[in-house]
Design goal:
61% helix; 164 residues
Length: 164
């Protein structure tokens, strides 16, 4: 019995409506979170399949915790990117999304979240036009943009010197 057939059998026993898809589609940038979620949903069946085929390298809890940390770190990015890709996204939306993502990553204690936050802060600080943001803050002081649904608080965003 092949590994895939063994896994399919374990999956159908645990999740009757689950089917192992053998598609030849390309992996997209936004499919990583979905793949991690799906893998973590079926981790018990995968572990049982590895035991059934007498595989020496069985996934341990630390590896599943790492995958869970990656999944948790990617969720705020997915939410933020969906907001940025909307038709009515403006500069205020982008600033609010950046603040949201960095705030959510700050709440997590994983190494993945820390590295992701540092990378985002570094990239944002390289691309940020401080003059334009100051003008935006001056023009929109205290106003709420219904399209963006965020109030920009520039003091929450890290500056170039706060990469630690």
């Amino acid at each position: 019995m092949s590994v895939v057939q063994n896994l399919q059998g374990n999956l159908t026993r645990k999740f009757p409506s689950f089917a192992l898809k053998n598609s030849k589609s390309k992996t997209r940038w936004n499919s990583s979170l979905v793949m991690h979620e799906r893998f973590l949903d079926i981790k018990t069946a995968i572990s049982e399949s590895l035991i059934d085929i007498k595989e020496q390298k069985i996934l341990v809890n630390v590896e599943f915790e790492t995958l869970t940390a990656i999944e948790a770190g990617l969720k705020p990015l997915k939410i933020g990117l969906e907001k940025l890709c909307s038709r009515n996204a403006i500069l205020r939306t982008a600033e609010g999304v950046c603040a949201f993502i960095i705030g959510e990553l700050n709440k997590q204690n994983s190494e993945f979240a820390k590295n992701m936050k540092c990378s985002l802060v570094q990239r944002i600080s390289q691309r940020r036009n401080v003059s334009l943001l100051g003008l935006m803050q001056y023009q929109n002081f205290g106003r709420k943009n219904d399209a963006a649904e965020v109030i920009v608080d520039l003091s929450r965003l890290p500056n170039k010197n706060s990469l630690s």
